[in-house]
Amino acid sequence: MSTLLVETRRARPADAGDIADIHDSAWRFAYRGLIPGAELEKMILRRGPAWWQTALKRGSRVMVLTFGDAVAGYANVGRNRAKGLPFEGEIYELYLRPEYQGLGFGRRLFGDARKELVSAGFDGLAVWALAANEPALGFYRAMGGLSVARSTETFGGRALEKLAFGWNA
Hints:
The chain is an alpha+beta fold and 169 residues long. The chain has 5 helices and 7 strands; from the N terminus they run βαααβββαβαββ. The protein has a 7-stranded mixed sheet, with helices on both faces. Helix 1 (16-31) crosses helix 3. Residues 6-169 form the N-acetyltransferase domain. Keywords: Acyltransferase, Transferase.
């Protein structure tokens, strides 16, 4: 009988290829039809293994969730970039390979990302999601997030609405 272990740990430069692959598949799954095709491709190609390796070597706070020997997802966290929000921390990205979605791994990764922010001394956290990305909105609401702000971001000349969710410490 074998047991597969699920764990979350800080990413290492050697994880760059797996993170880039997750970014690629998760973005295609989540944003195809929402972000204009050419712009989506450009954004995915820009974030290949070399980009992630450089980010990790420079100290970006990236966590990976592993299932057995496979890297199933990642979260990128740090200081909140939206100064108008009353939260010190932010989850910049939280993505799972599509085949691992809907199995509870996202909840685990979110909880561990939140703990990472608390251990780094950040009080509260914010997450942004495209308003048309219903699965993400549902996930953040299920995690107890409250909608706290709206904004827009332009992708390939197309302005898309995004929502911020917030959690107090």
